[in-house]
């Protein structure tokens, strides 16, 4: 997206995009042949400095100290930071492939749709563990780079590229873990069979245009948030993550989601127990304003709503300020991404069965286009 991108013939080690506040990244060889960089960018590359911070309290007090301890006590100096990043991504790829094998159409865990085929719950235990391992290794790579003096712009790009690629692995596995049908029950079971399903009682599903849109938001929200963060960094030179963000709280919550599916089964997310419990508690206190929502807010609806709220926080906190500061150029660089999002939504709106017919193809296509941007 910017002038800093991968040299065609070099490979260096990773810089921690979450913890490298004002850390300098040096490039000694400016004679390397670059495929994407302009001559002016090549001249500026040796002076590139990474400037970023993670404002998350979870990161500051738990995740960063944990990663630092692992680097200091468990990681040999000969292990390249990019290797640490790659190992973390391999865990997520393995988890994704295992879930793909057992849930090729994403909704096999939904026993309302598929009562004969039993999906082993252990795959969600694997996914939860893979997400925590990925998160820890992603926080370790930059610390290892500074420990060994091997930070580089390529390492930063490699780290960001793995993060972008990983987005779809997490989102697709969450859809499967919550037994979310990426389409209408009627399309699979017919009007009469699907009319009693809880999908038709969900306020959020009705508001957003069906469960296919809920699945779409679960896929797009992390991707958009990641794009906006790197888009802001392109203009300001700083990657600042808010107090509640995807790499810290988001991955931890995703892992907890998987562990819940492992312990209680994916269909727990189709129930309305959590919201109904709160409504009952408020009713006991004499507050009946939310009684109409009883039985109409699924547990998975709360997850989707949290993702949307987190994205809105990211957009409102970054987009207006960048546009005010950089004007038309900032708006121009947003245009391809907006066209991508609008095209994706139009395809899904006009063909409500597309995720039922080719779910993995859609996931991979959306992910590939995002990573390319």
Question: Mind explaining what this structure looks like?
Answer:
There is one protein chain. The protein is mainly alpha-helical and 373 residues long. Helix content is 64%, strand content 2%. It is built from 14 helices and two strands; from the N terminus they run H-E-H-H-H-H-H-H-H-H-E-H-H-H-H-H. The chain has helices spanning 39-44, 57-74, 81-102, 122-148, 153-177, 185-189, 191-194, 203-208, 211-236, 246-264, 273-284, 299-350, 354-357, 359-372, and strands at residues 52-54, 239-241. A two-stranded parallel sheet has the order 1-2. Helix 9 (211-236) crosses helix 12 (299-350). The model is unreliable at 1-28 (pLDDT under 50).
